[in-house]
Amino acid sequence: MSPLRNGLLSVGDLDLDGIGNIMKLSAVFSEVLGRDIPKVPALRGKTMAMVFSEDSTRTRTSFEIAAKKLSMDILSLNSSQSSIKKGESLKDTLANLHAIGADCFVIRHSSAGVPAQASTWLPVPIVNAGDGCHEHPTQALLDCYTLIKELNDSGDSADDDQILKCFNGLAVTIVGDVEHSRVARSLVKMLDMLGAVTTLCGPKTLMPKYVDKWPVRVRYRLDEVLPETQVCYVLRLQNERGSGIYLSSMREYAMNWGIDHRRDALLPDNAVIMHPGPVNRGVELASDIADSTRSLILDQASNGVAVRMAVIYMLLANSGDVTFDKGAFDKGNLVSMRYADRETNEQV
Amino acid sequence: MEQPLITERLRAVRQPAAMESSGEWCMAKFLMRGGTLVDATGVRSGLDVLIDRSDIVEIAPDISLPKGARLIDCDGCVISPGLVDLHTHLREPGNEEAETIESGTRAAAAGGYTAVVCMPNTEPPIDSAAVVRDIIFVSKDALCRVVPAGTITIGREGERLSPMVEMNACGVRIFTDDGRGVQNAFVMRRALEYASALGAIIAQHCEVDDLAEHTVMNEGYLSSIMGVKGAPNCAEELMLIRDLELAALCDARVHFMHLSTSGSVELVRRAKLAGKQVTAEVTPHHISLTDEMLSGYNSIYKVNPPLRARSDITELVKALSDGTVDAIATDHAPHTKASKELPLDQAPPGMIGLETALAVAITVLKGNSSGIPAEVSSPGRLTIEPSVLQYSMSMVDIIAAMSWKPAAIAGLDIASGGRHGGPLQPGAPANLAVFDPSAEWKVDASRLLSRSSNSPFDGLYLTGRVVHTIYEGEPVYLDGEATR
After folding, report:
1. ipTM greater than 0.95, yes or no?
2. Chain B residues whose beta carbon lies within 8 Å of the beta carbon of residue A214
3. What would the pLDDT profile of B14-40 be if each residue is shown by its tens digit?
4. Domain range for residue A311?
């Protein structure tokens, strides 16, 4: 049982046990979120600093609400309205936020590696909330949690020791702009650890060079892989990272790699469609299909809160007055933990 | 940190400084005792070297200490001609926070260098005779000879030719837009023609911007999982191929800087076999470190061209050992700590190297023959692959690549009327490096004499340490300390 004492910079920081524990804890927090008062005092008094130097809706709000449900205080910094604009270096900004009292950092940055660099500057845990085209580990975790809930037919089974079994041999096809996708880089690593069979599909210009050394199959023709796909994970075409120059036109991309009605019909009946958001409707995913019953897009968004609660809890669980041991995962322990219930608060 | 403005310094210039140092501060005699002499003539032991003013006056066994002479202990050391660096960034004028001519030449002295060619990507760039004269003036009292390289194009913009004739008249022999390759083939053709008529050399930083712009490291498996843009080997090789053809067309000499790929050195090897007038350099970091150093996104290891794969290192070392590559040049590139603490894609490329170059060269190229155990991958040591060890070089060949060969390329050797690169004989200039070839030392970047500390070898153990450096008869570096 290793708490994420050093933060979560990459899926590579996790082992199978670690993923399993986060999944179990996420299920516990899912239950908390379903209560009348969906809030626990688990990390009351702890401060989480959010440093986002890149636009974000889902991830930012998801981390923020997750921290609030854990009764944390939040320092939120948007680089466009901070001293970084005045020329202060990121290192100085982070050091000052730490001095002010941040117990952990959630960092999103347009440059790959910034959370890793920050972890060498700061003595507190850091969560990578997406760094350039590198990784987005909490996205991969929430995607796996969403699949566990979907494939096991019942959220309850998430505290079973066999919860990760559903990934064994699972055929996942990741479609689109892999080159610029931090989501894909995290997800490929995690699916490999979990025993899934991952296929990447998209135009070759959007496949990283040396992708042949990744633990994946690579296919360029989507129609050939869809019939054997159980999970169709559609990536966003990242025009802000210059995907455009890798393509002939949006129309050609949509025609060849977009999930439209014809391609939807090629998928097995029980296949699901996922997307990390935001969706370019009509480009990588037809609008109706994004809203169809096989789409898990909104499940991903809502599950993200529980998963991020689990990650933040594990970050700080072993520091200071918050105890952390195997018992922390006993469902009863956390389930009985009620907001403003001082007695049970003691155990956590 | 306050530096006088260039205009103020120029006001103080009575007349352009002579290109050769007068050695006016060398009033004493020095007797260097106990060293092994290594120069282009080979290895000689059991000889003392007597220096008077700026020259060697006697080389003989057991010279008795003349009255008033100081003894310099060279026991167990190699005495070689001073090292010559074809590729140093001194950052002055323009970025004195990172390095100055004074601090950079002090670092050079600590590294055994008695002459450095300083790169023109300063601010303003060295693209006029005025800036050349300024640098020569400021470096009058420097701890080694400073030879400015001029730009190929105005402002290093790759468009209009710089005034090479005028700069050449001030002593500039090497022209380069270093930091950037000349992208336009027509401009490069005219530059080669223009420079060849002066007997000057065009030194090319080979990098095709279309393939390498905005890249932060080598393109490989690692860059693919790190999610950063990588430069493929061919970004370098394509420009090298083009320039070999253009140099042949213009009957011009061309020098290739900091080659980093196996393909590049193979192209140079074939060009040399075909009799083309081409020379090449590699850096200490490209023969010792791979792109794996960047796995933690530490921008200390970001450099242009990038650190490559193990297979490239092997081929670079092979090319050094068979003479395909002429010189080891540092590409000493100081950057402030703050600038290196930017995100990897924003941090400037470059690493310092003057003070570690000789030790890295000995550690990598002497291989087993210097007594380094085969399991060189022990913690804190450079990992040297068995494939590299097979190309280990003699001390004469290593110093050749760091002293007289680069001296000849830069026109600083005796044959070209200069004072560097040896050989060591009575009447020759006293520009000497004295180093202990088997001393083990741990690099502590914070204690290096460069004003910056962006050394990729920080914390590593290296073999071979400079003990004294004699510049124009003056011990500018003595017993491991700069004397001024």
Report:
1. no
2. 224-225
3. 333 333 444 444 457 999 999 999 999
4. 7-135+301-323
